Amino acid sequence: MRGDAHAHTLVAPADLDSALALLADNKGHRVLAGGTDVMVAFERGLLRDARLISIWQLDELRGIATVGRHLTIGALTTYTDLIESSLVAEHAPTLAAAARDTAAVAIRNRGTIGGNIANASPAADLPPALLVHDCEVELRSASGARWVDYAGFHTGYKTTVMRPDELIVRVRVPLVDAPMRHFYRKVGTRRAQAISKVCISASVRRGHDVRIAFGSVAPTVVRARIVERELASALAAGLLSTEAVSRIVALGVAEARPIDDIRSTAEYRGRVTRNLLRECLMSFVA
Ligand SMILES: Cc1cc2nc3c(=O)[nH]c(=O)nc-3n(C[C@H](O)[C@H](O)[C@H](O)COP(=O)(O)OP(=O)(O)OC[C@H]3O[C@@H](n4cnc5c(N)ncnc54)[C@H](O)[C@@H]3O)c2cc1C
Q: Distances in Å between the alpha carbon of 182 and those of 32, 92, 128, 185, 211?
């Protein structure tokens, strides 16, 4: 049943410090960015937090720039911003690919990278790309700021290291000093407006640096460390044969440990993971 608007108050602080001061009060609040997840919860009558704090107008949380050896992306960056950014295309191409495959135009114009991370859905589309770009997340509260390695951000199903008084301010991606090859593929019920059943993101620099992440197969997004190790040694030895691909794919499906949930069955996810991982590895053969 739809939520009751009178059960909530909405405040819209004018700057970041004011927003952090409100969060420090810790009085049962929910941050509202683009609202594309929060309003779904409201429509379903599942929004329990009495106080909504809108951060949409905080310019401090916008902008995409290279700063030193990093690409930094403000938490309020939308999918459309990611798709249109030449810096993201250059330095974090799987992030742009993931944004292109997310939802449809209306949601892409409003949904944000910070909201996608904080909402902590294992089926979200940006997280596998953020993992392969070795991203870090800046969390800020009234008492200070800290950078958290995104690989350690999700602690379980919909749980994170973020405290209730903290905001995601921006993320940063280290710039790489040599070209990498990339792969991103999502499988959902249909091509548009569909949440992932399985998603794979990969970035590979031959013989050196192999990063692969699975989304939507487990309670959190995960790096496929065994696949990464095996693929790196096969590439370094110049031995990525069809047999090697089959062996690594089998290891990958075991490593992903696909789950049953409302979106799909473990059996279907296992089959799709096998096919996507094969497609991914074969793309690095040539
Ligand atoms: C029709 C539809 C289709 C969708 N399709 C997809 C899809 O294909 N792939 C996909 O991944 N997602 C999809 N989504 C989900 C949603 O659009 C994304 O998760 C989006 O990125 C959320 O961002 P937002 O700014 O709207 O977050 P909001 O709804 O404003 O917030 C989401 C959560 O994050 C918290 N939050 C937001 N910003 C911050 C911050 N800076 N710091 C701390 N906490 C914060 C909020 O408190 C809330 O708990 C879809 C949603 C809809 C309605």
A: 33, 9, 12, 10, 9
Q: How many CA atoms lie within 13 A of 128 on its CB side?
A: 33
Indicate if the pLDDT at residue 134 is higher than 90. yes
Say how many Å lie between the CA of residue 285 and the centre of ligand 1: 36
By alpha-carbon position, which residue is closest to atom 38 of ligand 1?
115
- Is residue 188 within 8 A of residue 172, CB to CB? The reply is no
Assess whether pLDDT exceeds 90 at residue 9.
yes
**What's the gap in Å between 244 CA and the centre of ligand 1?**
39
- pTM exceeds 0.85: yes
Q: How far is the CA of 86 from the centre of ligand 1 (A)?
A: 23
DSSP type of residue 176: P
Q: Which CATH number fits domain 181-283: 3.90.1300.10, 3.40.50.970, 3.30.390.50, 3.30.450.20?
A: 3.30.390.50
**Average pLDDT estimate for 241-257:** 91
Average pLDDT of span 41-47: 92
User: Which residue among 116, 168, 220 has the greatest number of ligand 1 atoms within 8 angstroms of its CB, and so is best to mutate?
Assistant: 116
* CA–CA separation, 155 and 15 (whole Å): 30
CATH class of this structure's domain 60-174: alpha beta
